[in-house]
Design a protein that fits this description.
Helix content: 10-25%
Number of helices: 2
Number of strands: 7
Shape: globular
Strand content: 35-45%
Largest sheet: 5 strands, antiparallel
Order of helices and strands: EEEEHEEHE
């Protein structure tokens, strides 16, 4: 199952925790023409988990923003172009979690 979009929206709802683990507002800026993909990640249970996953994915080239939600297991990634799923999987594995699929 895949959920990918190219968006021209200026804002998107995000996690309360930034990739660095600090709290931030509930919206994330999205560049015009950016690519958005939602991934299902197994094992996240709290804000710390969200921060760990977000931090690893944010280091991938071209990533603009990452919003992880432990409650749903969804991680929304906004990037300049579609990301190679194997790179996202490796980042999630590095954080200690499992990428199930693109949601």
């Amino acid at each position: 199952m895949t959920a990918e979009t190219t968006t021209e929206t200026a804002e998107a709802t995000g996690s309360c925790c930034s990739p660095g683990g600090s709290c931030q507002g509930g919206t994330a800026d999205i560049s015009l023409g950016a690519h958005s993909a939602v991934y299902e990640v197994r094992g996240m249970t709290c804000g710390h988990c969200e921060g760990a996953v977000s931090s690893e994915i944010a280091e991938l080239p071209g990533v603009i923003s990452v919003a992880a939600a432990a409650g749903t297991g969804e991680v929304t990634v906004v990037s300049e172009a579609p990301l190679d799923e194997s790179m996202v999987r490796a980042a999630v594995d590095e954080a200690g979690y499992e990428l199930v699929s693109q949601a």
